[in-house]
Amino acid sequence: MMDEQTNDSGKILTEEVESVTPPPRARVDLDALEAEAPAAQPARKPDYLDGFLAQRPQAEAAAGEPGGEIYEGVITALKEIFDPEIPVNIYDLGLVYGVEVADNAHVVVTMTLTTPHCPVAESMPGEVELRVGAVPGVGSAEVNLIWDPPWDPQKMSDEAKLELGML
What we know:
With 167 residues, the chain is of the alpha+beta class. It is built from five helices and five strands, in the order E-E-H-H-H-E-E-H-E-H. It starts with a strand and ends with a helix.
């Protein structure tokens, strides 16, 4: 092993040594640690998430509410409809502004399109109505196409932004 140093003239001086003793290894005396543990460390408080994570919903969500069978079925159906110009489904694209399920299983979907001049402006609402109407438990479906507020890319989900390379 070589040890390098510099003298006043700028020359590097070297010193050769036979061996270097390794540094001492860290040792933990477990007996001493256990003897000090009760006084040194306070008892650990119970984890505050234990009770929260063990909780279950008090009652099943109604079929038309978020988490309900019909509502979730409608969302799944909407996620199967893709915009023909953008390879993302209309739900993650942010085109669906609302889904309402009435007590009589009448579903109203409020949505928009990326632009009023969209080539599927005439056919997309009809396709949404057919797909939502085919969800088990849906009595009838209605689509309200609105233009205010206008769609903008900020309405997209993070998954859609990632798919389009915007994240």
